[in-house]
Amino acid sequence: MDSPNVATLKAITVSRIYLLHRRLITRGYTMIDPDKPRRAVALLHSEHDPAAYEELMRRHRLNVAYTVHTDAPAVLAALIAVQHALEHLADVVVIPHLGVLEASTPWWVVTEAADLITGTQEYPLWSAVTAQTRRRQ
After folding, report:
1. What domains can be seen in the chain, in order of their start residue?
2. CA geometry: angle at 5 spanning 74 and 65, to 5°?
3. What domain of life does the UniProt record list for this protein's source (predicted)?
């Protein structure tokens, strides 16, 4: 069961994704060109490792559209990441200070708006839905 903050965050995210999807379709965007770097939003903690961040950018062929520097709590930071991913039409949100996500973390909501790349793993778009289904089985 999600906490009220996470449930509210999910409701906001789903409505924003729907609006974004309609905006993209009306502009003729239907799929990502695999040969082009993906648009990314980076969420950096004050103590992030610049070398690790640069390595993630190079390895995943990312073009940063916007960078957020924040030490906000996880729920708020996840909301900030989703907001900027939607505003900047990002394909990816990069959060290098995160590792493997636990089942109860609010970071899963990011995957409802974009792919999520952490310091150790990549979570594709909509992987939160898959993770929730596995937990319920």
Report:
1. 4-136 (3.40.50)
2. 50
3. Bacteria
